[in-house]
Amino acid sequence: MDAFNVYYGGRSLCGRGTAGWRWLDLAGLAMDLINPRIWPNARLERLVYCTAFRDRKGDPSSLADQQTYVNALCHHNDSVAVAEGIYRPRVQRGVLVDPNSKSRGRVCSPGADNLPGWLPAEEVTGPSGQAELLVAVTTFEEKGTDVNVASHLLIDVLTQRIDAAMVLSNDSDLQFPLAEARRHVPVATINPRANRTSDGLRGDTDGGAGSHWWRRLKAADLVGHQLPDVVGSHVKPPGW
Protein backbone atom coordinates (compact mmCIF):
# COMPACT_ATOMS: atom_id res chain seq x y z
CA MET A 1 0.00 0.00 0.00
CA ASP A 2 1.22 3.48 -0.96
CA ALA A 3 0.08 5.39 2.13
CA PHE A 4 0.34 8.88 0.64
CA ASN A 5 -1.48 7.84 -2.54
CA VAL A 6 -4.31 6.38 -0.47
CA TYR A 7 -4.41 9.36 1.91
CA TYR A 8 -4.67 11.99 -0.80
CA GLY A 9 -7.10 9.81 -2.72
CA GLY A 10 -9.28 9.54 0.38
CA ARG A 11 -9.10 13.27 0.94
CA SER A 12 -10.29 13.94 -2.61
CA LEU A 13 -13.11 11.41 -2.26
CA CYS A 14 -14.33 12.39 1.21
CA GLY A 15 -13.36 16.06 1.46
CA ARG A 16 -10.33 17.71 3.00
CA GLY A 17 -11.97 18.72 6.29
CA THR A 18 -14.30 15.75 6.57
CA ALA A 19 -13.93 13.40 9.53
CA GLY A 20 -14.65 9.69 9.63
CA TRP A 21 -12.36 8.18 6.99
CA ARG A 22 -8.68 8.54 8.09
CA TRP A 23 -8.67 5.91 10.88
CA LEU A 24 -8.72 3.25 8.20
CA ASP A 25 -8.87 -0.49 8.85
CA LEU A 26 -6.75 -1.46 5.88
CA ALA A 27 -6.86 -5.19 6.48
CA GLY A 28 -10.65 -5.21 6.67
CA LEU A 29 -10.91 -3.01 3.59
CA ALA A 30 -8.54 -5.18 1.57
CA MET A 31 -10.36 -8.40 2.37
CA ASP A 32 -13.78 -6.93 1.60
CA LEU A 33 -12.60 -5.70 -1.80
CA ILE A 34 -11.95 -9.27 -2.95
CA ASN A 35 -14.58 -10.94 -5.10
CA PRO A 36 -14.65 -14.53 -3.75
CA ARG A 37 -15.58 -15.88 -7.17
CA ILE A 38 -12.28 -14.57 -8.55
CA TRP A 39 -10.08 -15.28 -5.52
CA PRO A 40 -11.86 -17.93 -3.42
CA ASN A 41 -10.77 -18.62 0.19
CA ALA A 42 -8.38 -15.65 0.30
CA ARG A 43 -6.37 -15.14 3.50
CA LEU A 44 -4.30 -12.09 4.39
CA GLU A 45 -0.64 -13.08 4.64
CA ARG A 46 0.99 -9.66 4.92
CA LEU A 47 0.04 -6.01 4.65
CA VAL A 48 2.99 -3.77 3.77
CA TYR A 49 2.27 -0.15 4.68
CA CYS A 50 4.69 2.05 2.73
CA THR A 51 4.91 5.57 4.11
CA ALA A 52 7.20 8.38 5.24
CA PHE A 53 6.73 10.14 8.56
CA ARG A 54 5.77 13.82 8.19
CA ASP A 55 8.37 15.34 10.49
CA ARG A 56 7.72 19.00 9.68
CA LYS A 57 9.10 21.88 11.72
CA GLY A 58 6.27 23.77 13.39
CA ASP A 59 3.74 20.99 12.82
CA PRO A 60 4.25 18.37 15.56
CA SER A 61 0.59 17.32 15.63
CA SER A 62 0.67 15.86 12.10
CA LEU A 63 3.58 13.60 12.97
CA ALA A 64 2.04 12.57 16.30
CA ASP A 65 -1.29 11.73 14.65
CA GLN A 66 0.45 9.76 11.92
CA GLN A 67 2.51 7.77 14.42
CA THR A 68 -0.61 7.07 16.49
CA TYR A 69 -2.37 5.69 13.45
CA VAL A 70 0.54 3.51 12.36
CA ASN A 71 0.89 2.11 15.90
CA ALA A 72 -2.84 1.39 16.04
CA LEU A 73 -2.72 -0.30 12.64
CA CYS A 74 0.12 -2.59 13.76
CA HIS A 75 -1.54 -3.32 17.12
CA HIS A 76 -4.85 -4.18 15.44
CA ASN A 77 -3.37 -6.67 12.99
CA ASP A 78 -0.04 -8.44 13.41
CA SER A 79 0.25 -9.02 9.65
CA VAL A 80 1.11 -5.33 9.14
CA ALA A 81 4.69 -4.44 8.20
CA VAL A 82 5.76 -0.79 7.92
CA ALA A 83 8.23 0.24 5.21
CA GLU A 84 9.58 3.76 5.81
CA GLY A 85 10.64 6.25 3.17
CA ILE A 86 11.90 9.80 3.71
CA TYR A 87 9.89 13.01 4.07
CA ARG A 88 12.02 16.09 3.65
CA PRO A 89 11.72 19.80 2.87
CA ARG A 90 13.06 21.30 -0.32
CA VAL A 91 13.04 24.63 -2.16
CA GLN A 92 11.83 24.69 -5.74
CA ARG A 93 11.95 27.50 -8.30
CA GLY A 94 9.26 28.01 -10.88
CA VAL A 95 7.18 30.52 -12.80
CA LEU A 96 4.28 32.09 -10.91
CA VAL A 97 0.87 30.88 -12.13
CA ASP A 98 -2.72 31.80 -11.29
CA PRO A 99 -4.25 28.80 -9.49
CA ASN A 100 -7.74 30.28 -9.83
CA SER A 101 -7.72 30.29 -13.63
CA LYS A 102 -8.93 27.17 -15.45
CA SER A 103 -5.67 26.86 -17.37
CA ARG A 104 -3.54 27.91 -14.38
CA GLY A 105 -1.91 30.33 -16.78
CA ARG A 106 1.36 32.09 -16.13
CA VAL A 107 1.13 35.47 -14.44
CA CYS A 108 2.47 38.37 -16.48
CA SER A 109 4.99 40.57 -14.73
CA PRO A 110 3.80 44.12 -13.98
CA GLY A 111 7.35 45.24 -14.73
CA ALA A 112 10.48 44.94 -12.62
CA ASP A 113 10.08 48.52 -11.34
CA ASN A 114 6.56 47.78 -10.13
CA LEU A 115 7.35 44.68 -8.07
CA PRO A 116 6.85 45.20 -4.32
CA GLY A 117 10.07 45.15 -2.35
CA TRP A 118 8.90 42.35 -0.11
CA LEU A 119 8.32 39.96 -3.05
CA PRO A 120 11.46 37.93 -3.88
CA ALA A 121 10.64 37.45 -7.56
CA GLU A 122 12.80 37.68 -10.65
CA GLU A 123 11.44 38.90 -13.95
CA VAL A 124 12.13 36.43 -16.77
CA THR A 125 11.05 36.04 -20.38
CA GLY A 126 8.60 33.20 -20.91
CA PRO A 127 8.32 30.91 -23.95
CA SER A 128 5.75 33.24 -25.54
CA GLY A 129 8.04 36.22 -25.12
CA GLN A 130 6.07 37.87 -22.33
CA ALA A 131 7.65 38.95 -19.05
CA GLU A 132 6.89 36.50 -16.22
CA LEU A 133 7.85 36.07 -12.57
CA LEU A 134 10.26 33.42 -11.34
CA VAL A 135 9.75 32.62 -7.64
CA ALA A 136 11.02 30.12 -5.08
CA VAL A 137 8.68 28.15 -2.82
CA THR A 138 9.25 25.72 -0.01
CA THR A 139 7.62 22.33 -0.31
CA PHE A 140 7.99 18.82 1.01
CA GLU A 141 8.64 15.65 -0.90
CA GLU A 142 8.21 12.04 0.02
CA LYS A 143 10.94 9.76 -1.27
CA GLY A 144 11.12 6.00 -1.41
CA THR A 145 7.48 4.97 -1.02
CA ASP A 146 6.98 3.84 -4.61
CA VAL A 147 10.33 2.00 -4.52
CA ASN A 148 9.29 0.25 -1.31
CA VAL A 149 5.94 -0.78 -2.82
CA ALA A 150 7.67 -2.21 -5.89
CA SER A 151 10.45 -3.92 -3.91
CA HIS A 152 8.20 -5.63 -1.38
CA LEU A 153 5.79 -6.71 -4.11
CA LEU A 154 8.51 -8.38 -6.19
CA ILE A 155 10.29 -9.91 -3.19
CA ASP A 156 7.06 -11.47 -1.91
CA VAL A 157 6.17 -12.76 -5.37
CA LEU A 158 9.58 -14.12 -6.36
CA THR A 159 10.18 -15.80 -2.99
CA GLN A 160 6.74 -17.42 -3.38
CA ARG A 161 5.58 -16.02 -0.07
CA ILE A 162 2.20 -15.11 -1.57
CA ASP A 163 -0.24 -16.59 -4.09
CA ALA A 164 -1.77 -13.25 -5.10
CA ALA A 165 -1.12 -9.57 -4.49
CA MET A 166 -3.23 -6.46 -4.07
CA VAL A 167 -1.63 -3.06 -4.71
CA LEU A 168 -3.35 0.07 -3.40
CA SER A 169 -1.96 2.85 -5.56
CA ASN A 170 -2.54 4.63 -8.84
CA ASP A 171 1.10 5.60 -9.30
CA SER A 172 1.99 4.90 -12.93
CA ASP A 173 5.65 4.48 -11.92
CA LEU A 174 4.63 0.99 -10.71
CA GLN A 175 3.82 -0.19 -14.24
CA PHE A 176 6.92 -2.37 -14.69
CA PRO A 177 6.93 -4.16 -11.29
CA LEU A 178 3.20 -4.84 -11.61
CA ALA A 179 3.68 -6.30 -15.08
CA GLU A 180 6.45 -8.56 -13.75
CA ALA A 181 4.36 -9.64 -10.77
CA ARG A 182 1.42 -10.55 -13.05
CA ARG A 183 3.62 -13.06 -14.84
CA HIS A 184 3.76 -15.10 -11.63
CA VAL A 185 0.62 -14.45 -9.56
CA PRO A 186 -2.80 -12.81 -9.88
CA VAL A 187 -2.59 -9.09 -9.04
CA ALA A 188 -5.37 -6.69 -8.06
CA THR A 189 -4.87 -2.96 -8.53
CA ILE A 190 -6.91 -0.66 -6.29
CA ASN A 191 -7.10 2.96 -7.41
CA PRO A 192 -7.68 5.17 -4.33
CA ARG A 193 -8.81 8.12 -6.46
CA ALA A 194 -11.95 8.89 -8.41
CA ASN A 195 -10.04 9.44 -11.66
CA ARG A 196 -9.40 6.71 -14.23
CA THR A 197 -7.01 3.94 -13.26
CA SER A 198 -3.70 4.31 -15.07
CA ASP A 199 -3.69 2.12 -18.19
CA GLY A 200 -0.19 0.91 -17.33
CA LEU A 201 -1.42 -0.47 -14.01
CA ARG A 202 -4.48 -2.28 -15.32
CA GLY A 203 -2.88 -4.93 -17.48
CA ASP A 204 -4.81 -7.75 -19.11
CA THR A 205 -7.26 -9.78 -17.02
CA ASP A 206 -5.99 -13.09 -18.37
CA GLY A 207 -2.33 -12.22 -19.03
CA GLY A 208 0.46 -14.08 -17.29
CA ALA A 209 -0.90 -15.92 -14.25
CA GLY A 210 -4.43 -14.65 -15.00
CA SER A 211 -7.27 -13.76 -12.58
CA HIS A 212 -6.12 -10.13 -12.39
CA TRP A 213 -8.65 -7.43 -11.52
CA TRP A 214 -8.87 -3.78 -10.57
CA ARG A 215 -11.30 -1.29 -9.10
CA ARG A 216 -11.55 2.26 -7.80
CA LEU A 217 -12.29 3.12 -4.19
CA LYS A 218 -15.36 5.10 -3.18
CA ALA A 219 -15.88 7.27 -0.13
CA ALA A 220 -18.18 4.59 1.31
CA ASP A 221 -15.34 2.04 1.17
CA LEU A 222 -13.23 4.23 3.46
CA VAL A 223 -15.98 5.32 5.84
CA GLY A 224 -17.23 1.75 6.12
CA HIS A 225 -13.86 0.32 7.19
CA GLN A 226 -12.69 2.15 10.30
CA LEU A 227 -10.69 0.89 13.26
CA PRO A 228 -12.24 1.06 16.74
CA ASP A 229 -11.79 4.52 18.25
CA VAL A 230 -9.43 3.01 20.81
CA VAL A 231 -6.94 0.33 19.75
CA GLY A 232 -4.89 -0.80 22.74
CA SER A 233 -3.41 2.43 24.11
CA HIS A 234 -3.86 4.27 20.81
CA VAL A 235 -6.76 6.71 20.54
CA LYS A 236 -8.14 8.08 17.28
CA PRO A 237 -7.05 11.73 16.89
CA PRO A 238 -9.79 14.40 16.93
CA GLY A 239 -11.19 15.12 13.48
CA TRP A 240 -10.15 11.77 12.08
What would you say this structure looks like, in words?
- This protein is of the alpha/beta class and 240 residues long.
- 28% of the residues lie in helices and 22% in strands.
- It has seven helices and ten strands.
- A three-stranded antiparallel beta sheet has the order 3-5-4, covered by helices on one side.
- Strand 4 (122-125) and strand 5 (131-143) form a beta hairpin.
- Helix 4 (145-158) runs parallel beside helix 5.
- The chain starts with a helix and ends in a 5-residue tail after the last strand.
- The mean pLDDT is 91.
Keywords:
240 residues, alpha/beta, three-stranded antiparallel beta sheet, three-stranded parallel beta sheet, 22% strand, globular
The overall strand count is 10
Distance between the termini: 20 Å
State the share of residues found in helices, binned by percent.
25-40%
Quaternary structure of the protein: single chain
Across the major sheet, the strand order is: 3-5-4
> What are the segments in which pLDDT stays under 50 over at least 5 consecutive residues?
none
Q: Spell the H/E element sequence.
A: HHEHEEEEHEHEHEHEE
Biggest sheet layout: 3 strands, antiparallel
Radius of gyration: 21 Å
Query: Structural class of the secondary structure composition?
Result: alpha/beta
Proportion of beta-strand residues: 15-25%
Q: What's the pLDDT, averaged over the residues?
A: 91
Report the total helices. 7
Shape: globular
